């Protein structure tokens, strides 16, 4: 059975983290291991950030891909993800798919779902930053390249907009 408010895409269900807070620790763990552990950030700091997505206002928010209690991946929609572009908001960030679920459409389903929710909540443009070698993934999902070579990591900034 698909939980209320969730959708089934790819080979999994995509739910709002608010509806599955039992995944908070798992989401925090994946994000911490992928981007923050090597920088010396404590895991509990990342779990605190993830829990900020549990709010009645609906922003920021996170979505998770899962099959029952089996976690597949996640993405967050947050106010800011790139210090060099503080005026851009909101951002899809921390897109993660567990390795055994990659190549099955899960990442695209998570990103599309997060963008649809953000657009439905009244945002006209959604931003995302990616390493140059990852940008084709988002371009193939229909995102548009806004900028290249941004910041120390030479990131690409991509956008998707509401269609009239």
Describe this structure in words.
The chain is of the alpha+beta class. It has a single domain, classed as Gcn5-related N-acetyltransferase (GNAT) (Aminopeptidase, 3-Layer(aba) Sandwich). The protein is built from 4 helices and 8 strands. A 5-stranded antiparallel β-sheet has the order 1-2-3-4-5, with helices on both faces. A hairpin with a 2-residue loop joins strand 1 and strand 2. Helix 1 packs across helix 2. The N terminus is likely disordered.
Task: Identify the notable features of this structure and list them briefly.
alpha+beta, 164 residues, NAA80, transferase
Look at the structure and give the CATH class.
Answer: Alpha Beta
CATH superfamily: Gcn5-related N-acetyltransferase (GNAT)
Q: How would a textbook summarize the main sheet?
A: 5 strands, antiparallel
General shape = globular
CATH architectural category: 3-Layer(aba) Sandwich
User: What is the SS-derived class?
Assistant: alpha+beta
Helix content: 25-40%
